[in-house]
């Protein structure tokens, strides 16, 4: 949960995994901005920016709609205008 403190050992034990892959995953999560490392005192889950995740979700919807239209156009190039219009009506 956001704000929660934990150690590599706790995660290793919970996941039944060695510390090396856990440490690698945690540093990747730190690089992505999801956790923060505190030297010699463990890790902390950073708070979530729900506005950012909502924007990502909206962007995903736009991408999926465009991908669907592109797939329709690719499958039937002659009917692209008709298919695109029909797709927009469905969405």
From TrEMBL:
Enumerate the UniProt keywords alphabetically: DNA-binding, Transcription, Transcription regulation
Q: Identify the stretch annotated as signal peptide in this record.
A: none
Reply yes or no: does the keyword Transmembrane helix apply: no
In terms of superkingdom, the source organism counts as Bacteria
What Gene3D superfamilies does the annotation carry? Winged helix-like DNA-binding domain superfamily/Winged helix DNA-binding domain (1.10.10.10)
Molecular functions per Gene Ontology: DNA binding; DNA-binding transcription factor activity
Give coiled-coil spans as residue ranges.
none
- PROSITE patterns in alphabetical order: HTH_GNTR
Query: HTH gntR-type domain: which residues?
Result: 1-48
Record keyword Kinase present: no
Q: Which PANTHER family match?
A: TRANSCRIPTIONAL REGULATOR, GNTR FAMILY, UXU OPERON TRANSCRIPTIONAL REGULATOR
Pfam short name (any one): GntR
What protein name applies here?
A: Transcriptional regulators
């Amino acid at each position: 949960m956001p704000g929660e403190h934990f150690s590599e050992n706790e995660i290793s034990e919970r996941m039944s995994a060695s510390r090396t892959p856990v440490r690698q995953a945690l540093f990747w999560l730190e690089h992505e901005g999801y956790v923060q490392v505190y030297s010699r005192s463990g890790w902390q889950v950073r708070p979530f920016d729900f506005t950012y995740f909502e924007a990502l979700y909206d962007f995903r919807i736009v991408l999926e709609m465009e991908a669907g239209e592109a797939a329709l156009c690719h499958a039937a190039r002659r009917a692209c205008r008709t298919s695109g219009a029909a797709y927009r009506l469905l969405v």
